[in-house]
Design a protein that fits this description.
About 25% of the residues lie in helices and about 30% in strands. It is elongated. The longest helix has 18 residues, at about 210-225. The protein has helices at about 5-10, 30-45, 90-95, 150-165, 210-225, and strands spanning about 1-5, 20, 55-60, 65-70, 75, 80-85, 100, 100-115, 125, 130, 140-145, 170-185, 190-195, 200-205, 240-245. It starts with a strand and ends in a 5-residue tail after the last strand. It has about 250 residues and is of the alpha+beta class.
């Protein structure tokens, strides 16, 4: 717990800092797109084949087992198909008559241009949540408004930034986008094979980026070694999945 004087030393650009603030010295931030590109490049160097913008049109089945996928570019055979595609999991599973309720929770991602470095950590408060990108831009994240007016949110956030942070008078909006965060119906991660269907594995949760490294390790261990006791039984898909009558 930091007192106001400590907070001012840590974040000197902050106007009227609160009297107290929590500080997590071991926490950090990263660019998920850049991190993903780095990992994919390394995987490809090790022999993985990357297919982007490739529409999945169906699954290949052999009895009660998934043995690959059908795409707009042809068939891809697989010992196991892993679905780690957020909200897209629901529509893919529906192709084989399985329902897995994943709610799309939208968030607004904002990028502002600033002329100088103004934030040393990641500031998260009642009115702003900001950090610097690697190139110096200021990144902010906001909840999606009930009204759907993202322009107003971007404007209000810019006002808050200029009010709370010195050196941002000339800041301006560069871009805004809406990210669909996948949230399982009961709020808990979903990890594991689908019911009695073999050859298809799902991994979906929020927050995905924060959990990605640990989840990736646990899933890869489960697929190569066998059932991973680190994954709680309460995370298994069986608790949420249903199958359409006569499907499969």
């Amino acid at each position: 717990m930091l007192q106001q004087s400590d907070l001012s030393r840590l974040e000197p650009a902050m106007n009227a800092p609160p009297s107290r603030a929590h500080y997590a010295g071991q926490d950090g931030a990263m660019d998920p797109a850049e991190a993903t590109r780095t990992l994919l490049d390394k995987a490809c160097c090790l022999g993985a084949e990357l297919k982007t913008q490739t529409l999945v049109t169906g699954f290949r089945k052999e009895g009660n087992r998934i043995i690959g996928i059908e795409t707009a570019e042809g068939i891809i055979d697989a010992d196991c198909v892993i679905l780690a595609c957020g909200t897209g999991i629901t529509s893919l599973l529906s192709m084989i008559g399985i329902s897995l309720p994943i709610v799309a929770s939208p968030a607004i991602l904002l990028r502002y241009r600033v002329t100088k470095h103004v934030v040393n950590t990641l500031i998260s408060g009642d009115d702003i949540e900001v950090r610097h990108a690697f190139n110096g831009d200021l990144l902010a994240a906001e909840d999606y408004p009930v009204t759907g007016d993202t322009e107003a949110v971007a404007s209000d956030t810019l006002t808050a930034i200029k009010s709370r942070l010195q050196g941002t008078a000339s800041a301006y909006l560069l871009s805004q986008s809406v990210g669909q965060r996948p949230v399982p119906q009961d709020g808990h991660p979903v990890m594991g094979f689908i019911d009695d269907v073999t050859g298809i594995y799902v991994a979906v949760m929020h927050p995905g980026v924060t959990c990605a490294a640990t989840v990736g390790r646990m899933v890869s261990e489960e697929l190569t070694i066998g059932k991973n006791s680190e994954i709680p039984e309460s995370y298994r898909p069986t608790r949420l999945t249903t199958r359409s009558s006569g499907a499969y």
